[in-house]
Amino acid sequence: MDARKGFDSTILLLAVVLTCFGVVMVYSSSSIMAAKKFSDGFYFLKKQGVFALAGLMIMAAVMHIDYHLLRRLAVPFLLLCAALLVAVLIPGVGTHAGGACRWIRLGPVNVQPSELAKLAMILYMAHSLAKKGEKIKTFKLGFIPYMVVLALLLMLLLMQPDLGSALTLAGVAMVMLLVAGTRLSYLFSLLVLALPFLYFAVMNVDYRRKRILAFLNPWDDPTNSGFQIIQSWIAFGSGGLFGKGLGEGKQKLFYLPEAHTDFIFSVVGEELGFAGVVVVAAMFLVLVMRGVRAAVGAPDDFGRYLAFGLTLLLGLEAFVNFAVVMGMVPTKGLALPFLSYGGTSLVTTLFAVGILLNVSSQGTGEAR
Predict the structure, then answer these.
(1) What is the spatial distance between Cα 318 and Cα 38, in angstroms, rounded to a whole number?
(2) What are the pLDDT digits (tens) for 241-289?
(3) Residue-by-residue DSSP string for 147-201
(4) Looking at the DSSP assignment, which residues form a beta bridge with residue 100?
(5) For residues 202 and 164, is the Cβ–Cβ distance under 8 A?
(6) Pairing state of beta strands 109-111 and 100-106?
(7) Phi, psi at residue 90, to the nearest 5°?
C-alpha cells in the first residue's frame, strides 16, 4: 500500500489543532511573567512557536517514513537515551532547575532526556514483544528482561529526581506487557513488591510527603504546600461556564505557579470555562480512540504494539495532568501533551503522532 494514502485525518487534524491552541495558551499564560522576568512578553511565545514549527515538520516527515524502519533503531535509541540519562547527572553537563537536574543544554535549547526515554522504551518493547510471540508468557524470557531494562531507566529517572516520568514509564510498560500476554500474576506480584519502595520514595522525601498531605487537605497549609492546588481550583471555579475570555484570566498574574507548564489546563479552565475544558478533554479522548483504532488495524504485531504504546503514553500523560490540576491526584511535575510549554515534550509528542499516522496509513481497509 502507498503509505501516502490513507493517513488518519482525524489524528492529523487533532494534532495540528492542539499544537496551535497550545501555542496560543502558552502566550496567554506566560506573557505577563515573561515581560517581568525577561522584559519581553513574547519570550515564551517565540520559543514555543519555534518548537511547534519544528515538531510539525518532524511529524510531517515521520508520517511518510515506513514505521518498520524504526525497528533497526530500537536498541541503539534505547542505549542512547540511557547514556543521556546518565549524562544529565554529571556535574557541568546536566542543567539544574527547580531542585532537579533533568536537562542537557545544547546551544539555545534544553533537551530533556526523560521525554526521549519514554519513546525509546516503547519502541524497544514493541520491537521485542513482536519477536517473542508466545514466549512472552514465560517468566524468564517474557518478563525478566523487560524488568531489568525498566529498572535501569527508573533508577536513572529517580536520581534526577523525576518521579512523575518514572511512574508514567512504569505504567506504560506494565500495560504493554499485559496487552502482549504477560501473565497477570507476574505483574500483580511486581506491583505488591514495588509498593514498599514507592512508599519509601514518597514519604521519605520531604517535598513529596508535603504534596501527599496537601492533596489530602490543602487548606491545612494554604500558603505553602497547598497553595498551588488551591489557586488551580480558584482558576477553574472563576471560569464558570464559558470563561472570562482568552487572555483575561487573573490566576496567571503570579498567583498560580507553573501556569504555562504543568498547570496550563487551569488557565484554560479560567479563560475558556467549563466549555473549553470539555472541548479540550474531548479532543484528547478522540485522539486516544483513533490511536487505539490505528493499533487494532496495524498490519503486524510490531505496528500494533508501537501504536498502542504511543497512544497509551499520550492518553496517560493527559489524564494524569487533568487529574493533578483538578486535585484528584497528588501534584507532580507532568506536562500536558501539546499544550504545556516545553520544547522536548512538544517535539517528542509530535514525533509520536507522526509514527501513529504512518501506522494508520498501512492498516487494513476494514480498520480504517
Answers:
(1) 30
(2) 999 999 999 999 989 998 999 999 999 999 999 999 999 999 999 999 9
(3) HHHHHHHHHHHHTTT-HHHHHHHHHHHHHHHHHHT--HHHHHHHHHHHHHHHHHH
(4) 97
(5) no
(6) antiparallel
(7) -80, 125
